Amino acid sequence: MFSNRYVRTIICSRVLLHLGIWIRNYAVLLYVTDLTHNNPLYVSLISVAEFAPIFLFALVGGTFADRWQPKRTMAGSDLLSAISVGAVLFALINGGWIALLLGSFISASLSQFSQPSAMKLYKRHVPEERLQGVMAMSQTLAAVFMVLGPVIGTLIFLKLGIHVSLILTAVLFLGSSVILTTLPRDASEQQTSLKSSFMNELSAGIKYVWSNQALRTLCLCFAVVGFASGLTQPLQIFIVVEQLGQTKTFLQWLVMTNGAAMLIGGAAIMGISRKVKPQRLFIAGLLITAICTIGIGASTMIWLTILLLIVSGFVYPAIQGGIQTLIVKNTEMAYMGRVSGAIMPVFMGMMVIGMSLSGYLKGAFSLLAVYALSGVIIIAGTLLMLRLREKQPGR
User: Fold this and answer.
1) What is the gyration radius of the CA atoms in the chain, in angstroms?
2) pLDDT at 321 over 50
3) CA 250: distance to chain centroid?
4) Residues 6+ apart with CB under 8 A from 303
5) Which of 31, 73, 230, 363 would give a disulfide with 117, using CB separation of 3.0 to 4.6 Å?
6) What sign has the CA pseudo-torsion 81, 86, 92, 96?
């Protein structure tokens, strides 16, 4: 896969981009909590600044990604992110720390233009039989930084402070932009999109997703899995304290174990990606995750909980890589950005809804009941995918 120039370049740029994002996120988080004495309002605003752009601009960014040339869009977005961080640093030096929140919002918004463009380049330049391996590699990279990102970001802030953290972030974003400029020039495309209005294209993208049976099924499945994930996300601390009888600090070991399993799982998926169809990989990942979710909710033994977390972490790249592969395979090039921008926020939106309900459901019923409900909902998502396989056996 690394012999492919596009894959190699995009992955290298994403390493710098992920590193910059984690350094920025934790520097902002720790600085604001220190400055406001752990004020929950400002801490919550940090999460809003980082996640709100996914809902506000994902579809907008995807639509522009279909109108613009992908290489220029990606390189330009990273360059503007670097400039925005520099502007935030200047404002911070002059005492305007609120600019940290605005800078995080702007940078996260720009990434909604860059990510769909990367999917377009993969669609255009990666052979179909290697596509699943590339998607697994992308998920493995994300898993690496889920484990290492918080550690690196915290250490840099504690050792070097907020100013150096922001300078490093700007340099990493700029480095990502420079790497992307080494890609060949974008292939010339028919500029028919310029003749139609932006709103017409955005509306056409939504209609395209809904009229495409495969994409509609994937969107519904993504929504179901996102909601199920949200139900259990805030309750991990209760697994540690109530089920396992450990202190809160034990949670970090469970998170690290799960993250390490994701790394190994991603490598394994890359190895078998050419031999296993993405539908089968995705369905197997969902079923195993459902069983592990119910088991974690019921387990009172540390070794069993860790084992289930290892298994669920191992199959996580199969779920994420599988669904992204299916999205790319079932989408026409002209709609790649809009489809990515329409479907990907569905997972986040439903996860937020699930998170908002998880505490209430635990109080009304029990921890096991919520985890069991999450597992059953994931199984429902599996049934949706089985329906897709039956109707499109040739894909």
Assistant:
1) 21
2) yes
3) 25
4) none
5) 73
6) negative
* Backbone φ and ψ of 368, nearest 5°: -60, -40
- Mean pLDDT check: name the lowest of 45-59, 147-161, 322-336, 369-383: 45-59
Residue 170, C-beta contacts closer than 8 angstroms, at least 6 positions apart? 20, 82, 83, 85, 86, 89
> What is the per-residue burial (b if ≥16 Cβ within 10 Å, else e) of 31-51?
bbeeeeeeeeebeebbeebbb
pTM above 0.85, yes or no: no
Q: Which two tokens stand for residue 357?
A: 């309900």
DSSP letters along 89-137, please?
A: HHHHHTT-TTHHHHHHHHHHHHHHHHHHHHHHHHHHHS-HHHHHHHHHH
Structure tokens at 14: 């994403």
Type of residue at 243: Q
Tell me how far CA of residue 116 lies from CA of 4, 62, 339, 384, in angstroms: 19, 6, 9, 25
Nearest by Cα to 306 from 367, 256, 238, 379: 256
Eight-class DSSP state of 261: H
> Higher pLDDT residue, 43 or 307?
307
Alpha helices in 240-334 (DSSP H): 251-272, 278-298, 302-329
**Block residue for tokens 């926020």:** 345
Please give the pLDDT value at position 249.
75
Which region, left, alpha or beta, applies to residue 332 given φ > 0 means left and ψ of -120 to 50 means alpha?
A: beta
Label residue 318 by pLDDT band (50, 70, 90). confident
pLDDT at 131 over 90: no
Q: How many residues would you count in the chain?
A: 395
Distance CA 10, CA 182 (A): 10
CB 370 within 8 A of CB 231: yes
d(C-alpha 286, C-alpha 315), whole Å: 8
In this structure, are residues 176 and 20 in contact, taking their beta carbons and an 8 Å threshold? yes
